[in-house]
Amino acid sequence: MSGPAKFVGRSVTRLEDRPLLRGEGRFAADISFPGQWIMRVVRSAVAHGEIKGIDAGAALALPGVHAVWTHADVAHLPPIPFRLTGLTALEPYRQPVLAKDMVRYVGEPVAVVFADNPYVAEDAADLVDIDIAAREAVIQADAAPGVFAADLNTEPSIIVKGFGDVDAAFRTANAVVSLDLSVGRHTGVPLETRGAIARYDEARDVLEMHGAAKVPHWNRDTLARMLGRAADKVQLYEGHVGGGFGIRGELYPEDILVCAAALAFKRPIKWIEDRREHLIAANHSRQQQHRVRAAIDRDGHILAIDDEFFHDNGAYMRTHAATVPDLAAAMLPGPYRVPAYRAVGHIRLTNKTPCGTYRAPGRYESTFVRERLLDAVAAKVGVDTVEIRKRNLIGKSAMPYALGLDTLGTKIVYDSGDYALLLDKALAAAKWDTLQAELKKRRAAGELVGAGVGMFVEKSGLGPFDTVRVEVKPDGQIEAITGVASIGQGVETVIAQICADALGVDYTDVRVVHGQTDRIARGMGAFASRVTVMCGEATRLAAGKLHEQALACAAQLMQTNAEALDIVDGVVLRKDGAGPSMTLAEVAKAMPNGLSAEDTFESTHMVYPYGVHVGAVRIDRDTGGIAIERYVIAYDIGKAVNPKLVEGQIAGGLAQGLGGALLEEFLYDEAGEPLSVTFADYLMPTAREVPAHTILVTEDAPSPLNPLGLKGAGEGGTNPVGAVIAAATDDALGTPGAITQLPVTPQRLKAILKLRKASPAGAPADAARPR
Amino acid sequence: MSEKAKITLTINGRAYDIAVEPRRTLVDAIREDCGQTGTHIGCEHGVCGACTVIVDGEPVRSCLMFAAQADGKAIRTVEGLADGEKLHPMQQAFMDHHGLQCGFCTPGFLMLAVGVLEREPNLSDDELLDVLSSNLCRCTGYQNIVKAVRAAAKEMRTA
Question: ipTM score of the complex?
Answer without folding.
Answer: 0.98
